[in-house]
Amino acid sequence: MKYGVPAGPEIKGGTVLFTGLPSAGKSTLALATRALLTENRHAAEVLDGDDVRSRFWPELGLSRADRAQNLDRIGGIATLLAGHGVIVLVAAIAPFADDRERMRARHLGVGLELLEVHLATPPDVCRFRDVKGLYARHDRGELTGLTGVDAGYETPRRPHLRLDTSAETVAESARRVVALLAAHELVAAQPVPER
Fold first, then answer.
1. Which residue, 2, 49, 126, 170, is most buried by CB atoms nearer than 10 A?
2. DSSP strand E in 42-179: where?
3. How is the beta sheet containing 87-91 ordered, strand by strand?
4. Mean per-residue pLDDT, 30-50
Protein backbone atom coordinates (compact mmCIF):
# COMPACT_ATOMS: atom_id res chain seq x y z
CA MET A 1 0.00 0.00 0.00
CA LYS A 2 1.19 3.50 -0.81
CA TYR A 3 1.16 6.01 2.02
CA GLY A 4 -2.24 7.68 2.21
CA VAL A 5 -3.84 5.38 -0.35
CA PRO A 6 -6.19 2.67 0.89
CA ALA A 7 -5.65 -0.99 0.02
CA GLY A 8 -7.76 -2.45 -2.75
CA PRO A 9 -7.92 -1.61 -6.45
CA GLU A 10 -5.05 0.57 -7.58
CA ILE A 11 -5.95 4.26 -7.37
CA LYS A 12 -4.49 6.17 -10.28
CA GLY A 13 -3.42 9.75 -9.86
CA GLY A 14 -2.56 12.21 -12.56
CA THR A 15 -2.08 15.89 -13.29
CA VAL A 16 -4.06 18.48 -15.21
CA LEU A 17 -2.06 21.50 -16.34
CA PHE A 18 -4.27 24.56 -16.86
CA THR A 19 -2.27 26.91 -19.08
CA GLY A 20 -3.21 30.29 -20.52
CA LEU A 21 -2.72 34.04 -20.34
CA PRO A 22 -2.90 35.98 -17.06
CA SER A 23 -6.56 36.25 -15.92
CA ALA A 24 -7.68 33.53 -18.35
CA GLY A 25 -9.39 31.74 -15.44
CA LYS A 26 -6.83 29.03 -14.59
CA SER A 27 -7.00 29.22 -10.79
CA THR A 28 -10.77 29.69 -10.75
CA LEU A 29 -11.28 26.63 -12.95
CA ALA A 30 -8.79 24.53 -10.97
CA LEU A 31 -10.63 25.30 -7.72
CA ALA A 32 -14.03 24.57 -9.28
CA THR A 33 -12.73 21.28 -10.68
CA ARG A 34 -11.33 20.30 -7.27
CA ALA A 35 -14.73 21.00 -5.71
CA LEU A 36 -16.45 18.65 -8.18
CA LEU A 37 -13.84 15.95 -7.65
CA THR A 38 -13.95 16.07 -3.86
CA GLU A 39 -17.77 16.00 -3.95
CA ASN A 40 -17.36 12.68 -5.74
CA ARG A 41 -14.78 11.41 -3.23
CA HIS A 42 -11.69 11.84 -5.38
CA ALA A 43 -8.50 13.10 -3.76
CA ALA A 44 -7.59 16.36 -5.51
CA GLU A 45 -5.21 19.24 -4.87
CA VAL A 46 -4.61 22.59 -6.57
CA LEU A 47 -1.09 23.90 -7.16
CA ASP A 48 -1.30 27.55 -8.22
CA GLY A 49 1.90 28.68 -9.94
CA ASP A 50 2.04 32.14 -8.34
CA ASP A 51 1.02 30.88 -4.90
CA VAL A 52 3.58 28.06 -4.88
CA ARG A 53 6.33 30.42 -6.07
CA SER A 54 5.64 33.04 -3.37
CA ARG A 55 5.34 30.47 -0.57
CA PHE A 56 8.20 28.10 -1.32
CA TRP A 57 10.74 29.74 -3.62
CA PRO A 58 10.20 33.51 -3.63
CA GLU A 59 13.71 33.99 -4.99
CA LEU A 60 12.44 33.04 -8.45
CA GLY A 61 11.45 35.92 -10.70
CA LEU A 62 9.86 36.01 -14.13
CA SER A 63 12.93 35.49 -16.31
CA ARG A 64 12.82 32.68 -18.86
CA ALA A 65 15.07 30.52 -16.66
CA ASP A 66 13.11 31.25 -13.48
CA ARG A 67 9.79 30.44 -15.17
CA ALA A 68 11.24 27.11 -16.30
CA GLN A 69 12.55 26.39 -12.81
CA ASN A 70 9.19 27.23 -11.24
CA LEU A 71 7.32 24.84 -13.54
CA ASP A 72 9.96 22.12 -13.03
CA ARG A 73 9.57 22.35 -9.26
CA ILE A 74 5.79 22.36 -9.48
CA GLY A 75 6.05 19.32 -11.74
CA GLY A 76 8.10 17.54 -9.10
CA ILE A 77 5.46 18.17 -6.44
CA ALA A 78 2.71 17.14 -8.86
CA THR A 79 4.33 13.78 -9.67
CA LEU A 80 4.84 13.11 -5.96
CA LEU A 81 1.17 13.75 -5.17
CA ALA A 82 -0.14 12.00 -8.29
CA GLY A 83 1.99 8.97 -7.43
CA HIS A 84 -0.15 8.62 -4.30
CA GLY A 85 -3.46 8.68 -6.14
CA VAL A 86 -4.15 12.42 -6.07
CA ILE A 87 -5.55 14.34 -9.02
CA VAL A 88 -3.28 17.38 -9.15
CA LEU A 89 -4.67 20.53 -10.75
CA VAL A 90 -1.82 22.86 -11.74
CA ALA A 91 -2.81 26.43 -12.58
CA ALA A 92 0.20 28.05 -14.24
CA ILE A 93 0.73 30.33 -17.23
CA ALA A 94 3.46 27.92 -18.43
CA PRO A 95 4.07 30.03 -21.54
CA PHE A 96 6.73 27.88 -23.23
CA ALA A 97 6.04 24.64 -25.08
CA ASP A 98 9.37 23.02 -24.17
CA ASP A 99 8.73 23.59 -20.42
CA ARG A 100 5.28 22.02 -20.72
CA GLU A 101 6.73 19.10 -22.66
CA ARG A 102 9.42 18.55 -20.03
CA MET A 103 6.71 18.43 -17.36
CA ARG A 104 4.78 15.87 -19.42
CA ALA A 105 7.91 13.75 -19.94
CA ARG A 106 8.61 13.79 -16.20
CA HIS A 107 5.14 12.39 -15.57
CA LEU A 108 5.42 9.76 -18.28
CA GLY A 109 8.82 8.75 -16.89
CA VAL A 110 7.18 7.59 -13.68
CA GLY A 111 4.08 6.10 -15.33
CA LEU A 112 1.75 9.05 -14.74
CA GLU A 113 -0.44 11.04 -17.09
CA LEU A 114 -0.41 14.79 -17.58
CA LEU A 115 -3.41 16.30 -19.33
CA GLU A 116 -3.02 19.75 -20.85
CA VAL A 117 -6.01 22.12 -20.74
CA HIS A 118 -5.52 25.37 -22.65
CA LEU A 119 -7.68 28.25 -21.50
CA ALA A 120 -8.00 30.10 -24.79
CA THR A 121 -9.70 33.10 -23.24
CA PRO A 122 -9.40 36.10 -25.60
CA PRO A 123 -6.72 38.64 -24.54
CA ASP A 124 -9.25 41.49 -24.32
CA VAL A 125 -11.35 39.45 -21.87
CA CYS A 126 -8.24 38.67 -19.78
CA ARG A 127 -7.35 42.36 -19.74
CA PHE A 128 -10.91 43.29 -18.69
CA ARG A 129 -10.85 40.77 -15.82
CA ASP A 130 -7.30 41.71 -14.69
CA VAL A 131 -7.73 39.60 -11.56
CA LYS A 132 -4.32 40.44 -10.09
CA GLY A 133 -4.00 43.94 -11.52
CA LEU A 134 -1.13 42.93 -13.80
CA TYR A 135 -2.42 44.62 -16.94
CA ALA A 136 -3.06 47.86 -15.03
CA ARG A 137 0.45 47.74 -13.56
CA HIS A 138 1.88 47.16 -17.03
CA ASP A 139 -0.10 50.10 -18.42
CA ARG A 140 1.33 52.34 -15.66
CA GLY A 141 4.86 51.23 -16.51
CA GLU A 142 5.30 49.38 -13.20
CA LEU A 143 5.65 45.95 -14.78
CA THR A 144 7.38 44.55 -17.83
CA GLY A 145 7.52 41.04 -19.21
CA LEU A 146 3.76 40.47 -19.00
CA THR A 147 2.84 37.28 -20.81
CA GLY A 148 0.74 37.98 -23.87
CA VAL A 149 1.62 41.69 -23.88
CA ASP A 150 5.38 42.18 -24.03
CA ALA A 151 6.39 38.60 -23.30
CA GLY A 152 5.54 35.64 -25.50
CA TYR A 153 3.04 32.85 -25.00
CA GLU A 154 3.39 29.73 -27.12
CA THR A 155 -0.14 28.47 -27.68
CA PRO A 156 -0.46 24.71 -27.15
CA ARG A 157 -0.85 23.01 -30.52
CA ARG A 158 -2.65 19.86 -29.38
CA PRO A 159 -3.98 20.24 -25.84
CA HIS A 160 -6.24 17.54 -24.49
CA LEU A 161 -8.92 20.20 -24.05
CA ARG A 162 -9.22 23.81 -25.22
CA LEU A 163 -11.65 26.09 -23.39
CA ASP A 164 -12.77 29.66 -23.95
CA THR A 165 -13.84 30.68 -20.46
CA SER A 166 -15.64 33.73 -21.85
CA ALA A 167 -18.03 31.46 -23.74
CA GLU A 168 -19.21 29.19 -20.91
CA THR A 169 -19.69 29.22 -17.15
CA VAL A 170 -17.05 28.06 -14.68
CA ALA A 171 -19.31 25.13 -13.76
CA GLU A 172 -19.63 24.08 -17.42
CA SER A 173 -15.86 24.23 -17.90
CA ALA A 174 -15.24 22.25 -14.69
CA ARG A 175 -17.64 19.52 -15.80
CA ARG A 176 -15.74 19.27 -19.10
CA VAL A 177 -12.45 18.85 -17.22
CA VAL A 178 -13.96 16.11 -15.04
CA ALA A 179 -15.28 14.40 -18.19
CA LEU A 180 -11.75 14.55 -19.63
CA LEU A 181 -10.36 12.91 -16.49
CA ALA A 182 -13.03 10.21 -16.73
CA ALA A 183 -12.23 9.61 -20.40
CA HIS A 184 -8.61 8.98 -19.39
CA GLU A 185 -9.79 6.68 -16.56
CA LEU A 186 -8.30 8.88 -13.86
CA VAL A 187 -11.65 9.25 -12.14
CA ALA A 188 -14.77 7.13 -12.19
CA ALA A 189 -17.18 7.93 -15.00
CA GLN A 190 -20.29 9.17 -13.26
CA PRO A 191 -22.82 11.93 -13.67
CA VAL A 192 -21.61 15.20 -12.21
CA PRO A 193 -24.37 17.15 -10.44
CA GLU A 194 -25.52 20.40 -12.02
CA ARG A 195 -24.68 23.57 -10.06
1. 126
2. 44-48, 87-91, 113-119, 161-163
3. 44-48, 87-91, 14-20, 113-119, 161-163
4. 93
